[in-house]
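Cont'd.
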Amino acid sequence: MNGIDKTTDEILQLAATHFKVPREKLRADDDFFKTLGINSLQALDLLTRLEQHFRIELPDYELQGVTDFRTLAERIQSRL
Amino acid sequence: MKSFSGKALSWKLADGTIELTLDRARCNEIGSITLGELEQFIAALEALKADEARALIISSSRAEGFCAGADLRELFERSQAMAPRERVSGVRDFLERIHRVMNAIDAAPLTTIAAVHGVTFGGGFELALTCDLIVADKMARFCFPELRLGLIPGFGGIPRLKRDIGNAVVRDLLLTGRSINATKAQSAGLVSQVTAEGDALRVARSTAAQINKFDARTAAEAKRFIKPVPHEDLRREIDIFCDLFTRPAVEAGLRKFVESTDALPYLP
Protein backbone atom coordinates (compact mmCIF):
# COMPACT_ATOMS: atom_id res chain seq x y z
CA MET A 1 0.00 0.00 0.00
CA ASN A 2 1.51 3.37 -0.97
CA GLY A 3 1.52 6.45 1.27
CA ILE A 4 -1.72 8.00 0.06
CA ASP A 5 -3.60 4.68 0.14
CA LYS A 6 -2.33 3.94 3.64
CA THR A 7 -3.33 7.42 4.83
CA THR A 8 -6.77 7.06 3.24
CA ASP A 9 -7.20 3.68 4.88
CA GLU A 10 -6.28 5.07 8.30
CA ILE A 11 -8.77 7.93 7.86
CA LEU A 12 -11.54 5.52 6.87
CA GLN A 13 -10.77 3.31 9.85
CA LEU A 14 -10.74 6.25 12.25
CA ALA A 15 -13.99 7.66 10.82
CA ALA A 16 -15.69 4.26 10.95
CA THR A 17 -14.70 3.73 14.57
CA HIS A 18 -15.57 7.17 15.83
CA PHE A 19 -18.81 7.71 13.92
CA LYS A 20 -19.87 4.07 14.33
CA VAL A 21 -20.21 3.32 10.62
CA PRO A 22 -19.20 -0.13 9.28
CA ARG A 23 -15.74 0.24 7.74
CA GLU A 24 -16.79 -1.71 4.63
CA LYS A 25 -19.44 0.93 3.86
CA LEU A 26 -16.83 3.68 3.52
CA ARG A 27 -14.98 4.31 0.25
CA ALA A 28 -12.18 6.71 -0.58
CA ASP A 29 -14.30 8.77 -2.97
CA ASP A 30 -17.30 9.07 -0.63
CA ASP A 31 -18.54 12.50 0.43
CA PHE A 32 -17.77 12.19 4.13
CA PHE A 33 -20.44 14.71 5.17
CA LYS A 34 -23.08 12.56 3.51
CA THR A 35 -21.66 9.12 4.27
CA LEU A 36 -20.99 9.88 7.91
CA GLY A 37 -24.04 12.16 8.24
CA ILE A 38 -21.99 14.82 10.01
CA ASN A 39 -22.32 18.59 10.39
CA SER A 40 -19.59 21.21 10.63
CA LEU A 41 -19.12 20.76 14.38
CA GLN A 42 -18.59 17.03 13.91
CA ALA A 43 -16.23 17.79 11.01
CA LEU A 44 -14.12 19.83 13.43
CA ASP A 45 -14.18 16.90 15.82
CA LEU A 46 -12.96 14.65 13.00
CA LEU A 47 -10.23 17.18 12.15
CA THR A 48 -9.00 17.17 15.76
CA ARG A 49 -8.92 13.37 15.81
CA LEU A 50 -7.01 13.30 12.52
CA GLU A 51 -4.49 15.86 13.81
CA GLN A 52 -3.94 13.71 16.89
CA HIS A 53 -3.75 10.44 14.97
CA PHE A 54 -1.26 11.68 12.39
CA ARG A 55 0.46 14.11 14.79
CA ILE A 56 0.10 16.99 12.40
CA GLU A 57 -1.42 20.43 12.31
CA LEU A 58 -3.99 20.88 9.55
CA PRO A 59 -5.47 24.39 9.29
CA ASP A 60 -9.20 24.05 8.78
CA TYR A 61 -9.18 26.43 5.81
CA GLU A 62 -7.31 23.70 3.95
CA LEU A 63 -10.47 21.61 4.24
CA GLN A 64 -12.60 24.17 2.43
CA GLY A 65 -14.14 22.43 -0.54
CA VAL A 66 -12.79 19.06 0.58
CA THR A 67 -15.61 16.57 0.89
CA ASP A 68 -14.13 13.18 0.00
CA PHE A 69 -11.78 10.99 2.01
CA ARG A 70 -9.12 10.71 -0.69
CA THR A 71 -8.66 14.49 -1.04
CA LEU A 72 -8.60 14.72 2.74
CA ALA A 73 -5.85 12.09 2.73
CA GLU A 74 -3.88 14.17 0.20
CA ARG A 75 -4.12 17.22 2.44
CA ILE A 76 -2.89 15.17 5.38
CA GLN A 77 -0.15 13.51 3.33
CA SER A 78 1.26 16.92 2.46
CA ARG A 79 1.79 17.56 6.19
CA LEU A 80 3.47 14.25 7.03
CA MET B 1 -24.70 33.51 45.99
CA LYS B 2 -25.09 29.86 47.00
CA SER B 3 -26.82 28.76 43.83
CA PHE B 4 -28.72 29.95 40.77
CA SER B 5 -30.36 28.22 37.85
CA GLY B 6 -31.31 30.31 34.84
CA LYS B 7 -32.16 29.87 31.17
CA ALA B 8 -28.58 29.97 29.93
CA LEU B 9 -26.40 29.13 32.90
CA SER B 10 -26.32 28.07 36.51
CA TRP B 11 -23.94 28.41 39.39
CA LYS B 12 -23.36 27.00 42.82
CA LEU B 13 -20.89 27.66 45.60
CA ALA B 14 -19.61 24.73 47.62
CA ASP B 15 -16.44 24.19 49.62
CA GLY B 16 -14.88 27.48 48.56
CA THR B 17 -15.34 26.88 44.82
CA ILE B 18 -17.97 28.44 42.58
CA GLU B 19 -18.94 26.37 39.58
CA LEU B 20 -20.53 28.37 36.76
CA THR B 21 -22.01 26.09 34.10
CA LEU B 22 -23.09 27.33 30.68
CA ASP B 23 -26.06 25.45 29.30
CA ARG B 24 -27.92 26.97 26.39
CA ALA B 25 -28.69 25.25 23.08
CA ARG B 26 -27.02 25.00 20.70
CA CYS B 27 -23.54 25.71 21.96
CA ASN B 28 -23.91 28.48 24.55
CA GLU B 29 -24.04 31.30 22.03
CA ILE B 30 -23.84 34.54 24.02
CA GLY B 31 -26.85 36.79 23.45
CA SER B 32 -28.99 39.00 25.68
CA ILE B 33 -30.25 36.14 27.89
CA THR B 34 -26.76 34.84 28.66
CA LEU B 35 -25.47 38.37 29.14
CA GLY B 36 -28.26 39.21 31.60
CA GLU B 37 -27.53 36.08 33.64
CA LEU B 38 -23.79 36.73 33.56
CA GLU B 39 -24.51 40.21 34.94
CA GLN B 40 -26.51 38.60 37.74
CA PHE B 41 -23.57 36.33 38.40
CA ILE B 42 -21.14 39.25 38.62
CA ALA B 43 -23.45 41.04 41.06
CA ALA B 44 -23.56 37.90 43.22
CA LEU B 45 -19.79 37.48 42.95
CA GLU B 46 -19.17 41.06 44.04
CA ALA B 47 -21.50 40.60 47.01
CA LEU B 48 -19.48 37.66 48.32
CA LYS B 49 -17.72 38.06 51.63
CA ALA B 50 -13.93 37.89 51.58
CA ASP B 51 -12.71 34.31 51.81
CA GLU B 52 -16.15 32.87 51.00
CA ALA B 53 -14.84 31.55 47.67
CA ARG B 54 -11.28 31.12 46.47
CA ALA B 55 -11.82 29.48 43.08
CA LEU B 56 -14.23 29.79 40.18
CA ILE B 57 -14.65 27.15 37.49
CA ILE B 58 -16.46 28.03 34.26
CA SER B 59 -17.52 25.06 32.14
CA SER B 60 -20.23 23.95 29.76
CA SER B 61 -22.70 21.12 29.93
CA ARG B 62 -23.31 21.22 26.16
CA ALA B 63 -21.85 18.25 24.29
CA GLU B 64 -20.86 20.47 21.35
CA GLY B 65 -18.38 22.45 23.34
CA PHE B 66 -17.60 25.26 25.75
CA CYS B 67 -19.12 28.13 23.77
CA ALA B 68 -19.49 28.95 20.07
CA GLY B 69 -19.27 32.71 20.69
CA ALA B 70 -21.71 35.55 20.26
CA ASP B 71 -25.29 34.79 19.27
CA LEU B 72 -24.93 35.96 15.66
CA ARG B 73 -28.54 35.18 14.86
CA GLU B 74 -29.77 37.51 17.59
CA LEU B 75 -27.20 40.14 16.63
CA PHE B 76 -28.31 40.04 13.00
CA GLU B 77 -32.04 40.04 13.71
CA ARG B 78 -31.82 42.88 16.23
CA SER B 79 -29.64 45.00 14.00
CA GLN B 80 -31.99 44.46 11.05
CA ALA B 81 -34.83 45.90 13.10
CA MET B 82 -32.86 49.10 13.76
CA ALA B 83 -31.89 52.15 11.70
CA PRO B 84 -28.12 52.25 10.91
CA ARG B 85 -27.37 54.87 13.59
CA GLU B 86 -29.27 52.90 16.22
CA ARG B 87 -27.34 49.77 15.22
CA VAL B 88 -24.05 51.24 16.37
CA SER B 89 -25.44 52.44 19.68
CA GLY B 90 -27.19 49.08 20.18
CA VAL B 91 -24.06 47.07 19.55
CA ARG B 92 -21.94 49.47 21.62
CA ASP B 93 -24.31 49.09 24.55
CA PHE B 94 -24.09 45.29 24.30
CA LEU B 95 -20.28 45.43 24.07
CA GLU B 96 -19.99 47.79 27.05
CA ARG B 97 -22.10 45.39 29.10
CA ILE B 98 -20.23 42.24 28.07
CA HIS B 99 -16.90 44.01 28.67
CA ARG B 100 -17.99 44.88 32.21
CA VAL B 101 -18.75 41.20 32.80
CA MET B 102 -15.51 39.97 31.21
CA ASN B 103 -13.42 42.56 33.06
CA ALA B 104 -15.03 41.59 36.35
CA ILE B 105 -14.20 37.90 35.82
CA ASP B 106 -10.70 38.82 34.63
CA ALA B 107 -9.98 40.85 37.77
CA ALA B 108 -12.02 38.79 40.26
CA PRO B 109 -10.12 38.35 43.53
CA LEU B 110 -10.28 34.57 43.29
CA THR B 111 -8.51 32.11 41.03
CA THR B 112 -10.54 31.40 37.91
CA ILE B 113 -10.39 28.30 35.74
CA ALA B 114 -12.03 27.73 32.36
CA ALA B 115 -12.66 24.00 31.85
CA VAL B 116 -13.17 23.79 28.10
CA HIS B 117 -14.02 21.10 25.58
CA GLY B 118 -15.07 21.05 21.93
CA VAL B 119 -15.91 24.34 20.27
CA THR B 120 -14.30 27.29 22.07
CA PHE B 121 -14.81 29.94 19.42
CA GLY B 122 -15.07 33.71 19.24
CA GLY B 123 -16.80 35.04 22.35
CA GLY B 124 -16.42 31.62 23.98
CA PHE B 125 -12.67 31.79 23.48
CA GLU B 126 -12.78 35.34 24.84
CA LEU B 127 -14.64 34.17 27.94
CA ALA B 128 -12.03 31.44 28.51
CA LEU B 129 -9.29 34.07 28.14
CA THR B 130 -10.66 36.04 31.09
CA CYS B 131 -9.80 33.09 33.33
CA ASP B 132 -6.46 32.68 35.08
CA LEU B 133 -6.08 29.08 33.91
CA ILE B 134 -7.49 27.17 30.96
CA VAL B 135 -7.86 23.42 31.41
CA ALA B 136 -8.65 21.90 28.03
CA ASP B 137 -10.10 18.57 27.03
CA LYS B 138 -7.89 17.19 24.27
CA MET B 139 -10.83 17.60 21.85
CA ALA B 140 -11.12 21.36 22.47
CA ARG B 141 -10.63 23.73 19.52
CA PHE B 142 -9.94 27.44 19.78
CA CYS B 143 -10.70 29.96 17.07
CA PHE B 144 -11.32 33.62 16.32
CA PRO B 145 -13.47 33.43 13.16
CA GLU B 146 -14.59 37.09 13.30
CA LEU B 147 -12.62 38.35 10.30
CA ARG B 148 -14.72 36.26 7.95
CA LEU B 149 -17.68 38.37 9.07
CA GLY B 150 -15.73 41.56 8.44
CA LEU B 151 -15.30 42.14 12.17
CA ILE B 152 -12.73 41.78 14.89
CA PRO B 153 -13.39 39.88 18.12
CA GLY B 154 -15.43 42.21 20.32
CA PHE B 155 -15.52 40.67 23.79
CA GLY B 156 -11.94 41.57 24.73
CA GLY B 157 -10.19 38.70 22.99
CA ILE B 158 -7.32 40.42 21.24
CA PRO B 159 -6.09 42.51 24.18
CA ARG B 160 -6.23 39.49 26.49
CA LEU B 161 -4.57 37.19 23.98
CA LYS B 162 -1.89 39.84 23.41
CA ARG B 163 -1.37 40.07 27.16
CA ASP B 164 -1.02 36.31 27.56
CA ILE B 165 0.94 35.00 24.56
CA GLY B 166 3.34 35.98 21.79
CA ASN B 167 2.17 38.44 19.17
CA ALA B 168 2.98 36.08 16.26
CA VAL B 169 0.47 33.53 17.54
CA VAL B 170 -2.10 36.28 18.08
CA ARG B 171 -1.66 37.39 14.46
CA ASP B 172 -1.90 33.81 13.21
CA LEU B 173 -5.20 33.21 15.04
CA LEU B 174 -6.69 36.59 14.23
CA LEU B 175 -5.60 37.05 10.62
CA THR B 176 -6.19 33.50 9.37
CA GLY B 177 -9.28 32.73 11.47
CA ARG B 178 -8.08 29.15 11.73
CA SER B 179 -8.87 26.95 14.66
CA ILE B 180 -6.20 25.23 16.72
CA ASN B 181 -6.44 22.15 18.90
CA ALA B 182 -5.69 21.91 22.62
CA THR B 183 -2.16 20.60 22.16
CA LYS B 184 -1.24 23.51 19.90
CA ALA B 185 -2.91 25.93 22.31
CA GLN B 186 -0.87 24.48 25.15
CA SER B 187 2.38 24.78 23.20
CA ALA B 188 1.50 28.42 22.50
CA GLY B 189 1.18 29.00 26.24
CA LEU B 190 -2.55 29.47 26.22
CA VAL B 191 -3.67 26.29 27.90
CA SER B 192 -2.38 25.27 31.29
CA GLN B 193 -3.36 21.57 31.21
CA VAL B 194 -4.63 19.22 28.51
CA THR B 195 -6.80 16.36 29.73
CA ALA B 196 -8.22 13.13 28.37
CA GLU B 197 -11.54 13.35 26.59
CA GLY B 198 -14.33 14.25 29.03
CA ASP B 199 -11.92 14.96 31.90
CA ALA B 200 -11.50 18.76 31.85
CA LEU B 201 -14.02 19.48 34.60
CA ARG B 202 -12.59 16.79 36.88
CA VAL B 203 -9.10 18.23 36.45
CA ALA B 204 -10.40 21.77 36.99
CA ARG B 205 -12.04 20.64 40.24
CA SER B 206 -8.82 19.02 41.39
CA THR B 207 -6.97 22.26 40.57
CA ALA B 208 -9.58 24.27 42.46
CA ALA B 209 -9.12 22.00 45.49
CA GLN B 210 -5.40 22.79 45.39
CA ILE B 211 -6.13 26.54 45.12
CA ASN B 212 -8.44 26.30 48.13
CA LYS B 213 -5.46 25.35 50.30
CA PHE B 214 -3.92 28.79 49.85
CA ASP B 215 -4.55 32.01 51.74
CA ALA B 216 -7.21 33.93 49.79
CA ARG B 217 -5.68 37.38 50.31
CA THR B 218 -2.23 36.23 49.18
CA ALA B 219 -3.63 34.54 46.07
CA ALA B 220 -5.64 37.66 45.20
CA GLU B 221 -2.57 39.92 45.65
CA ALA B 222 -0.44 37.57 43.52
CA LYS B 223 -3.05 37.66 40.79
CA ARG B 224 -3.42 41.43 40.87
CA PHE B 225 0.37 41.78 40.65
CA ILE B 226 0.79 39.51 37.64
CA LYS B 227 -2.43 39.94 35.64
CA PRO B 228 -3.21 43.53 34.68
CA VAL B 229 -6.49 44.11 32.84
CA PRO B 230 -5.56 45.83 29.53
CA HIS B 231 -8.23 48.55 29.86
CA GLU B 232 -6.86 50.90 27.21
CA ASP B 233 -6.71 48.21 24.50
CA LEU B 234 -10.14 46.95 25.54
CA ARG B 235 -11.64 50.42 25.01
CA ARG B 236 -9.94 50.64 21.63
CA GLU B 237 -11.33 47.25 20.66
CA ILE B 238 -14.91 48.43 21.28
CA ASP B 239 -14.28 51.54 19.12
CA ILE B 240 -12.81 49.52 16.24
CA PHE B 241 -15.63 46.96 16.41
CA CYS B 242 -18.29 49.69 16.31
CA ASP B 243 -16.48 51.45 13.46
CA LEU B 244 -16.55 48.25 11.40
CA PHE B 245 -20.02 47.11 12.36
CA THR B 246 -22.22 49.17 10.03
CA ARG B 247 -20.32 48.36 6.84
CA PRO B 248 -22.32 46.44 4.21
CA ALA B 249 -19.68 43.68 4.27
CA VAL B 250 -20.55 42.93 7.89
CA GLU B 251 -24.28 42.80 7.19
CA ALA B 252 -23.59 40.48 4.25
CA GLY B 253 -21.32 38.28 6.37
CA LEU B 254 -23.85 38.00 9.18
CA ARG B 255 -26.67 37.33 6.72
CA LYS B 256 -24.64 34.60 5.05
CA PHE B 257 -23.95 32.93 8.38
CA VAL B 258 -27.51 33.21 9.66
CA GLU B 259 -29.15 32.03 6.45
CA SER B 260 -26.58 29.34 5.69
CA THR B 261 -27.80 25.83 5.14
CA ASP B 262 -24.23 24.83 4.40
CA ALA B 263 -22.86 22.00 6.46
CA LEU B 264 -19.80 24.11 7.16
CA PRO B 265 -20.83 27.36 8.89
CA TYR B 266 -18.36 26.74 11.71
CA LEU B 267 -15.40 26.21 9.38
CA PRO B 268 -13.53 29.43 8.61
